[in-house]
Amino acid sequence: MNQPTNVDQQHPVIHGERPSMIGMDDFEVRQRFETKEEAVLTIKSYNIHRGVEYKVFESDQLKYHGKCVQFGNGCKWLIRVTMRQRKGYWEVRKYNGPHTCLATEISTDHKQLDYHVICASILSLVMADASISVKVLQNVVSSKFGFKPSYRKVWMVRKGNTEDASTIFFHRLFWMFPPCIEAFKYCKPLISIDGTHLYEKYEGTLLMAIAQDGNSNILPVAFGLVEGENTDSWKFFLSHLRQHVTSQPGILVISDRHNAIKAALLVEDGG
After folding, report:
1. Strands laid side by side in the 252-254 sheet
2. How far apart are the first and last CA of the chain?
3. pLDDT average, residue stretch 238-253
4. Sign of torsion over alpha carbons 36, 37, 41, 42
5. Strand extents, DSSP E, the chain
6. Same domain, 209 and 234
7. Structurally, how many domains does the chain consist of?
8. Residue 257 counted as domain residue
9. 13: in domain
10. What's the pTM value of the predicted model, to 2 decimals?
11. CB of 17 closer than 8 Å to CB of 25
12. Residue span of the structural domain in which 178 resides
């Protein structure tokens, strides 16, 4: 525990430790934190080190309230931290602890070992050497908390810490193949559109438009890479589809009636 300060002689205060210095035995009522972020990181790190998890029941600009996932089932651990607006700091107002449940096996990862906790652990290393490998950072986090986050989770944190204002981001892409566009002239006057999620390293959504010839053979006519299925991304895809593929009138569109598709089709230039 940190030593009490002399800020308030009537109520000695124990300041929350920085995430990189977590080593406290437990929390105390009236324990202070400079910001909500410091309080949350400390609570998460506390639970990660003990191999237990908690759920957040309230969280806003004035309070943060969490309970053990086993609360009411053998454990009474809970913590409530609130903002003391007049004094300008966050304070533990209620605490039942320590955990009385047994630490459970949580595979090799931990729910509370999220972006913010990992970032606080590796930021200085990434800032000192932007080329540091993800595997090294994985091992750093593992040696600190006893849980090893996935490669992708650490990669996303590292990626976020190495981007600056000069970074160019991929937004959207539409493409088609001329032979398919030429063949569409002899197909049925209908287009089927749909989207599918992309996984692993590169996320986003692949949008597709396909047609059928007179023998019901499938003909792919257009593709799009977008951030997800929303009105803007479908408007982007459908407007290019209209401009480059289905310029003729009277084309029937078949879809799964996704709300974003319906909204995009209602836009004047959305197809």
Report:
1. 173-175, 218-226, 205-212, 190-197, 252-254
2. 64
3. 87
4. negative
5. 32-33, 54-59, 63-68, 78-84, 89-96, 173-175, 190-197, 205-212, 218-226, 252-254
6. yes
7. 3
8. yes
9. no
10. 0.47
11. no
12. 173-266
